[in-house]
Fold:
Amino acid sequence: MDAISDAAETESQYQLEIKKLNREIRRLKKDNELLRILNDQVSRTQIYIQKGSNQRIFYIRQLLKSSPYILILTDSKLQTVMTSEVYFQYENGYDKEELKRGVPLRSALRTLLSEEQLDDFMEKCQRVLRGGEMEPYLVQAYHNNEKYDFQITIRQMLQNDEIIGLNIIFVEMTAIIDALERAKQADTAKSNFLANMSHEIRTPMNAIVGMSEFILRDCDNPKAKSYASMIRSSAKTLLSIINDILDFSKIESGKMEIAESYYRFSSMINDVVTLARVRLHEKPIKLIVDVDPSIPDRQFGDEVRIKQILINLLGNAVKFTHTGSITIKVEPDTRYYDGQYHLIFSISDTGIGIRSLEIKNIFSTFVQVDTKRNRTVQGTGLGLPISRELVHMMGGDLRVESEYGKGSTFTFDIRTRSDDPTPVGNMKFDQDNVPVADVFRATFTAPDASILIVDDNDLNLQVAMGLLSPYKCKMCSATSGADAMIKFSTGRYDLVFMDHMMPVMDGVETTGMLRKMPFGETTPVVVLTANAMKGAAEEYRALGFQDFLSKPIDPGELEEILLRHLPNNLIVREKAGEQETCNYPGGGNSGMNGADGVNASASGVSAEGGVSAVVNQTEVEGSDDLIDVKTGLRYSMGKPDFYRKMLEIFASGNHLKEINDLFLAQNWENYMIKVHALKGIAMTIGAVNLSEKAKKLEQAVRNGSIDYVTANHDDLCELYQRVVDLINSGELQF
Ligand code: ADP
Structure:
């Protein structure tokens, strides 16, 4: 029984086991199915991935095959990995298989780039490989004697932020570069054409201006005169346009050059301010000059071009301002200092201003804004672009700030150098543009003082003596260094005025000789200079002078010098008004050159007469650019009779012939002395443009630019003659 029941129990256990096993089999079957499905999915994914990557490889192959650029992929050792098909157009001795296996990058490009270009290229590749950045750059390559222009770009290939090689692209730009070159050549040809044309037009234009001048002078018919006047003024406008075009085409064709030399900053500012005054004419505008006194006076730069910019900006300020003020400000820019000196110039006006929308256009060529409002204002729209280009050439920039209806400020900076820190000092300028109304009145006399004036130029002597005449001192003149020594040895002087530039013995040498003579050491000698230096007293002191006085002589400065150097006991303060006399030359003072000196108070002209004549001044139309009466009167203390005499002496002088003879003899040293003297004399009588021209010629001789002198000497003579003709015509009224 027990055995039976044992067997039954075993049987049921087997059954249980079988059931379990069956369950296990069913589970395994399910898992198997799952695995199969998974396996199936993996295989399908694999196929998909394979397909995708084949696709990508296919695309990459297509890219390399059809790319118009040379593409080269390298590994981190700069061995080639892949190249585009185009690469093989530039036969290089390698086949595709070789390149695939990898060749050094340098030799892969050996037939395309020169050794020098390869050195540079490999250096750049190494830099990019080390993590550096590289801007695309241009090379001109030769292959089989053909020229190719490539733009090369070198980029890193990154994998997980690691540089694994380089991606190098050569874009062939031969056609574009050639087209650009052709366009540039066409542009240069256009600019050359413009420059030549402008040059050619200038010659007949000068004749037109000159001839209309003759008609105005010689013809009595008022109608013909008015036509001639219109011809002349239109011709002048055309000439100024042509000059702008000439400059502009020079800039465009790259022929504009900056010619640097040493110049006096104070003298440059003086000239610009004088010209601005002339242009202001009767406009009720205050001209304010604010020059930082610490600016070194001796500068190295292109004075002519800096002046051109200033004259243009000031000219615009005058054109577009009807009331208020114009300020010219110059200050050093202390932010930069790299052995060079930066100066910031600004010209502000209280004029019509520029609309903000139009501001960005005004530096474009031939652009004039607000044309409705400015339709009567002449111009070419070239002044600002030329000025800006010139400023760029001098290492700076020209900017503008403006408020419509309120005014504008043009600011520019330029790089300049100076090896002499002597500052310009306080430059004095009249605050108002009414210089002639400020008739100078001498505040004292010095009848017992003896003064020796040394100048080789007759007119300069007359001017100095005329200006000294209200002081009633004894005056003696000498026309050369030798003459000065004779006069000095036979008379006693309280003060000597000595011209700087004289032929044979100049002012410095003569003063040196005087110093060795009795009383020579103790007699103050003041140098007369046409270089208008302010704050240069130190320099002149070192040369042996006690002081200096700029020509044209400013009556106020002359008085300061007299007060500074005449002994106090010789100064007589009289009641106001009593000293208002001016003994102009030729006015009966025949003994001026006498060794004993002559009391110069004999024949005077009343100051009141001078003032009223100025108030009633009428300008001869168009004559102001030959002679600016205001400037002339200013240097004649506002006294018309004195001024008239100055003009007469100028017109009767022999200077033109002397200058021309020296030019023909190519005696440059004396030529320079004569044009230097002319610079001062011309300014004294108000012939501002003639003075300017003389100055340029003086500078040209100084810089050895004889070509410039040869090209411009005739212009100077012509202008000189026109000034003389105008004086002789009697048409100049004041
Ligand atoms: P333009 O010879 O015609 O004066 P510019 O290039 O010098 O040529 O000036 C271009 C234009 O910019 C002028 O026509 C004028 O409209 C404007 N402009 C220049 N300067 C000033 C200023 N100071 N005030 C107002 N407008 C100005």
Observations:
- The two ends are 165 Å apart (CA to CA).
- The CA atoms of residues 113 and 614 lie 78 Å apart.
- Confidence is low (pLDDT under 50) at residues 431-439, 576-622.
